[in-house]
Amino acid sequence: MTKEELAAYIQEKYGEKLTPLESGRYDLLYEVSKDNLLDVAQSLKDDENLQFDFLCNLLGADTKEHFEVIYNIASIYKNLRLDLKVILPYDAAEIESVQKIWPAANWYEREMWEMYGIEVKNHNDLKLLLLPDDWDQGFPMRKDWDAPDFVRLPEVD
Amino acid sequence: MGELRTEEFIVNMGPHHPSTHGVCRLVLTMDGEKIVKIEPVIGYLHRAIEKICENRTYMQCIPLLDRFEYVTAMSCNYVFSLAAERLAQIEVPERAEYLRVIMLELNRIASHLLFYGVTAMDIGAYTPFLYGLRERELIIDLFEMTCGQRLTYNYIRIGGVSRDIPKEFIPKCREALKIISGKMSDYEGLLNENPIWLERTKGIAVLPKELAIAYGVSGPVLRASGVQYDIRKNDPYSIYDRFDFEIPVRYNGDCYDRYLLRLDEIRQSIKIITQALDGLPDGDIKSKKSKMTFKAPAGEVYARIENSRGEMGVYLMSDGGKTPLRVKTRGASYNHVQVLPHFGTDMLIADLVANFATLDVIMPEVDR
Prior knowledge:
The structure holds two protein chains of two kinds. Chain A starts with a helix and ends in a 36-residue tail after the last strand. Chain A is an alpha/beta fold. The model of chain A has no long low-confidence stretch (mean pLDDT 87). Chain A has helices at 3-14, 37-46, 105-116, and strands spanning 18-20, 29-32, 54-62, 67-75, 80-88, 94-96, 119-121. Chain A has a domain at 3-94: 2-Layer Sandwich (Beta Polymerase, domain 2). Chain B is an alpha+beta fold. In chain B, strand 7 (311-318) and strand 8 form a beta hairpin. In chain B, helix 3 (73-88) runs antiparallel to helix 4 and helix 6 packs antiparallel against helix 11. Chain B has a single domain (48-367), classed as Cytochrome-c3 Hydrogenase, chain B (Orthogonal Bundle), CATH 1.10.645.10. The chains are: A alpha/beta, B alpha+beta. The interface between A and B is large, with 37 and 41 residues.
């Protein structure tokens, strides 16, 4: 399946739940709503023609307007790649865990939780991963967070 | 006499254990000599590379990402450049692409030779360590000759490479490849039939392929479990589709197969480099857009490459500014440590050492 065929297939079968995003550059990027995430992820994995069984990467991001959670998934047997994005407003930073679908999400979700403060629901082991055990200085990857001894470079052209 | 009182106890392995290749702490629950539960504790090497990248220009990120996975720093340079090139849609000159492939594959051989040495040393054989590092030195010398650095190269830049190879590079490279392919039988002769080695690795720590895929395991570990998946073939980048090489695959998924598979890969890499040296064209080594003031247009992309350990990826988000909006690095070792608790409980500590060594984990890639 080429990228165009995949885009057409997804448009036809999942068009209601997945909205293509212009900002994706190389692979296809779709926006999915928080409520549909688990449904869509499960059916992308179970679909005979897609079999997205491999979670390459999972990340949170802070765009200064809202949080984003991005899932980079691949299909080993069908040789496909796809990105999913969930947009979360700052005041409702909460998402379902996809561990049941892709067990690899475990540590990625823990990292996202400790670095951004995005709450992960139904995660089986939500505790600090990279940060020290006695960490109490907030969520370091947020854009409004600076370390106490952090020196920002002056603006130069 | 009453029954013997038995209870589970905890062994704390690491963070400064020589076989954890850095600072990984494994909390082991033991029942006698058998491991009941493994709990990896990571984060000792967390240097906040992703956060620092958000405050650096694109070109400044490259030497920083050298430290992300220092054994194959070329791949780190390359994967970030690839992401930035995809965002800015930069065409890279032909010669630069060939040089990149040569460097990436040389780095893969160097990494696998290091693997050969340290794995054998972890399991108790000292000679392979000397053999592996002796030949790795030849490759490191080639890198030093090209970019002045032996470990963190900062050689592959956005839009090309930093400088051309010196005149004596090609003959020296051919000579090094000849020496390494000649020594392959020595490496295999030392370990492949060695009864102690077989006892320690064959059938030990078997990773079934369903489990491997579920936990995002990639690279040689995945291929040793019988899944023929290599990003160089399955999602080709650079000019890998022009070369004739095979993806070795093995089916038992144990420590022995993981070890053999990496030796197979050295042979394939030698094949690729030889073809690249033969076909190396003249021309520019940098695109005109390769400047220190490089800015990527707004957008986002996930670039992934086949590193010597598995899938290495960078998710790069840009809002059009001087600095990236978000840089997320993905290292194969992250998933390889994550899958450790799921190997099953029929393992001794000595088997865990063999397992950890053949997963070829490198901790800076896990903690970033």
